[in-house]
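Researcher: Next entry in the queue.
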Amino acid sequence: MKLTLLRHGNTEGNVRGLYYGASDIPILPESEEELKALAEKGGYPVVGKYYTSGMKRAEQSFAALYGDIPHEALPGMREIDLGEFEMRSYEELKNDPKFIEWCTGDNEKNVCPGGESGEQVTDRALAALKPIIEAGEDAVIITHGGVIGGVLARLFPNPNGRFAFTPGTGTGYTVEFDGTKPVRFCKTPAEPEENE
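Model: Structure for this entry, 196 residues:
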């Protein structure tokens, strides 16, 4: 079974360097066009089941990449709720004692004031993925960078944690399973060889 996790397109939050996750913001019009162009080049899997996190940016990205193919929403795959830090920049937050405390120590276990921790997000994402993996049918999910990074870091531990696996917009990973055991992963869409 192969499970593909793809990150949504670029948003105003990305461009402005904002901390955001639960805010249901759209992708930028130019990003939508970029995703459509990427889809035309190919490399995105065609599978039996399709899902999104249900958030606006994931839905718009799915439509740009896959058109009107039927799919389901998996709310467990939504991005982290950053609580009091939502839609704020580092410059706005850097002197906030709550932000400093959140940034200090274990960034997986520290809970955002009024929000979630990275660990909580990964736990709920893996719970949402469990029945899909157990069903054994190839699937594609359009989700979020932090979610993808957390899931891959849990399945394939790395000293850099989720940051080793956080993909660029419109890209992600395909994980191959032997039964319910993850055995390997690759970038999706595949990166072109240097001599191409």
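Model: Residues 192-196 have pLDDT under 50 and may be disordered.
Researcher: Noted, moving on.
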